[in-house]
Amino acid sequence: MHRLLSALGRVFKTYVGWKRLGIVASILIIGFAITSLIRTLKGVDHNVILTALTDKSPAQIGLAALCVIGAFCTLTFYDFFALRTIGKLHVPYRIAALSSFTSYVIGHNLGATVFTGGAIRFRIYSDYGLSAIDVAKICFISGLTFWLGNLFVLGIGMIWHPAAASAMDLLPDQVNQLIGLACLAGIAAYFVWLATGKKRRELGQNGWKVVLPSAKLTLVQVLIGVVDLGFCALAMYLLMPSEPYIDYVSLAVVFILATLLGFASHAPGSLGVFDAAMLVALPMFPREDIIATLLIYRVLYFLLPFGIAISIMGIRELWLSVVKPWQEKRAAAVNGHPMPAAAAAPVRQVAQRSQKR
């Protein structure tokens, strides 16, 4: 039996591999979501959607926007916590906030967050002496924060309101409660594993090792993930139609499951996947009202932050690559140091313009 399993493992690694399996799973999730979305949107009246959009009060949208801001403020502590965990204490909070915000927003909107978000993090942290391995550790610990927070809230929600999950996964309430218990048991086992170590636990080998937070610090890690998720779910809850009534915990369970499906698909902005999941899980609401809610949420949580993140990165690159080198060369010329002809030309042009004026 052991030989058979070993042989199957070798065949899997040689001909399939986890990377190919992940790609296939993503394609299947996206395909299923698009099919469900198209089927759900059949017969939807566009005029009713526009009416539903105008029914949202400025107070509703304003409060949801404040929750989104709270979510992104909490998000900045993902990288800050990770930096402190790996011992990079010289990186200030403002840089951690910049990296966390831009890498998450741009990476999530473009898809393949591991690669796009990792590239942005490396571009920012390399200026502070961090290596690619350091950035990989930050990505790992930030991802761990996300998953711990999601699993904790999902576990409580599925135990408390299993019917909310049943609308999406079509499983009996008892099975969903068992899944919720498994989530909480897994987190508890992780805490016990951390607490029983003689020193801080490590993961990895062959020169790539990440030191995990202590059990006490992991409580902070879970709290960061829970608060972030709570703000996001609250923003969606505030935008929901007033009738029929749905409680916050039930919506949070649906929201988390839809979010996790979106992340698993690696689709840009979870487009289609998140929306289809929300529509399928909330059949008691008119489809036009849910679509209007999702449109506003996408603008607040995806489109506006995406534009802000791109603008920040563009201005930063312009400053570091153009403005700052030019200022340094100009300062060197003023201090009496010779400058290359190509670098000195812009300075001479500015001086000539000043003399003419």
TrEMBL record:
Keywords: Membrane, Transmembrane, Transmembrane helix. The keyword Transmembrane applies. The chain crosses the membrane at residues 21-41, 61-81, 138-163, 175-196, 217-239, 245-264, 299-320. This is UPF0104 family protein. It comes from Rhodopseudomonas palustris. The keyword Acetylation does not apply.
